[in-house]
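Saturday, quiet lab. Running sequence design on the structure tokens for the scaffold JK sent over.
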């Protein structure tokens, strides 16, 4: 497969179709993820009201559920939107932020897996290891493990739930339990900007909205995410500059930029 053409085709479809991505996400990243979706070419919708979420999900092309700040009204909105998403048949992308950190988050994450089956799960190694039943610890929203340490667990989780699982880190792994893709793009400076992991989840939802192949859609999104961070880091004075440049690269990324740097392979 020509991965450059695959990523470019996915990005072009997002820009052409402008999918509506509903985000029931945490209050730290609402603005940044909305701006990233706009720069990418998608259309963001953000809500934390259950009645509103249920109705918006019927209009949306994909749903993001992010448990980063799980206040009760946020949680109610997650399940309300999830029920509508299931009814409409749109992809649900789950970001299990710090899923193993507290009993409340552990119970919420496991309940979401059961009641709102995700098409894609994107998390760091600690989060994926917890969902896979391996009891990993986390340091708040940060992983205590390298992404490769969660690959076996990700494959098993994907097989068990019949979904795609992405383990993000210095190298991203995307698996459906049978096939596994690896994305090597990105920059260490991205870890100094809060919410870029959550932004990756939103981008995955945008690509999943236009591509029924969830494995490839997720890999395309993670490749664009990594390329944008890598290109933005070139010449950035620090994380503040990177954050602005990241949006600019999402907006301007073209086939040539993808071809020059893409590091996407099948394992």
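Result came back. Writing it out in full:
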């Amino acid at each position: 497969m020509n991965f450059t053409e695959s990523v470019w085709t996915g990005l072009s479809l997002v820009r052409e179709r402008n999918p509506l991505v509903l985000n029931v996400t945490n209050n730290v990243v609402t603005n940044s993820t909305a701006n990233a979706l706009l720069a990418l070419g998608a259309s963001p919708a953000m809500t934390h009201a259950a009645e509103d979420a249920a109705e918006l999900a019927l209009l949306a092309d994909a749903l993001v559920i992010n448990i980063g700040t799980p206040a009760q009204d946020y949680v109610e909105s997650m399940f309300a939107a999830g029920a509508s998403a299931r009814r409409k048949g749109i992809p649900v992308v789950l970001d299990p932020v710090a899923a193993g950190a507290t009993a409340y988050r552990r119970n919420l994450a496991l309940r979401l897996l059961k009641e709102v089956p995700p098409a894609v799960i994107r998390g760091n190694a600690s989060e994926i290891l917890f969902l896979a039943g391996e009891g990993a610890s986390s340091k708040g929203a940060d992983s205590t493990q390298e992404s490769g340490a969660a690959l076996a667990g990700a494959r098993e989780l994907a097989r068990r739930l019949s979904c795609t699982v992405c383990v993000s880190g210095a190298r991203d792994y995307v698996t459906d339990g049978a096939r596994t893709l690896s994305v090597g793009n990105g920059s260490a400076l991205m870890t100094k900007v809060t919410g870029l992991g959550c932004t990756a989840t939103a981008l995955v939802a945008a690509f999943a909205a236009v591509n029924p192949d969830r494995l490839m859609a997720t890999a395309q999104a993670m490749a664009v995410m990594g390329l944008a961070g890598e290109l933005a880091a070139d010449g950035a004075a620090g994380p503040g500059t990177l954050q602005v440049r990241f949006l600019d690269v999402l907006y301007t990324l073209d086939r040539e930029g993808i071809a020059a740097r893409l590091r996407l392979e099948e394992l």
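Notes for JK: The chain has a mean pLDDT of 94. The chain is about 50% helix and 15% strand. Ask whether to fix the surface positions before the next round.
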